[in-house]
Amino acid sequence: TISELSVLIKGEANTQIRLTVLRGQERKEFTVTRKAFQTPVATARMLEGNIGLITIENFDERCAQETIAAIEELTAQGAEALIFDVRNNPGGYANELVKVLDYILPKGDLFRTVDYRGVEDVDKSDARCIEGVPMAVLVNGDSYSAAEFFAAALQEYGAATIIGEKTSGKGYFQTTLKLDDGSAVGLSVGKYYTPKGVSLADTGVTPDILLPMDAEMALQLYYDRLDPMEDIQIQAALEALK
What we know:
- The protein is α/β, with parallel strands linked by helices.
- Strand 8, helix 4 and strand 9 form a beta-alpha-beta unit.
- The chain has a 6-stranded mixed sheet, with helices on both faces. Strands 7-6-11-10 form a 4-stranded antiparallel sheet. Strands 1-2 form a two-stranded antiparallel ribbon.
- The longest helix has 14 residues.
């Protein structure tokens, strides 16, 4: 499988590995030098009607930096509205989520965590925000964790129209305990809440415009082969923002 192959190939940077590849009936060998590389976390694209599309792949490191840069790039190009695509987004770091929300939303609560001792922590936004720009967020059943809370926050503030399918419904955060044999155990140690104190556990975010994809279109989306003109959820967002 891909994951098994990845384990075999990964190693220390600047070391080499020999790969044998079967192409049809031909076997070819390649010597490859291992290097660290980064894939974009957030990408920007201008669609029809001066509407900008920002695809956020995850909320890992560089998410806030790249998402904010994408917003500024599109607004500099004259974007009059924005679509955020967090479909198939597996989530990531809460601090990256909070930075993005702080940039977009006005002064107020952004994200809540409560640990199992009952200690609550609330992240808040300052007054600086995006004003006068209509927004939409695209979600699906594989929008998970931080991606869900991103959509939920914009929905609760009335800042964006949520379009697509109900999200997965994660409401807990974990800590990882490494064991002596090299394995690890992930334990849920607290709960996540939206700005208004709502848990998404087992419920997820319900879109304002519920619009499911068929299996074939969802597969094309997953493999990044779906043209925006053929994407029914992007088209619905364009129509809503007009």
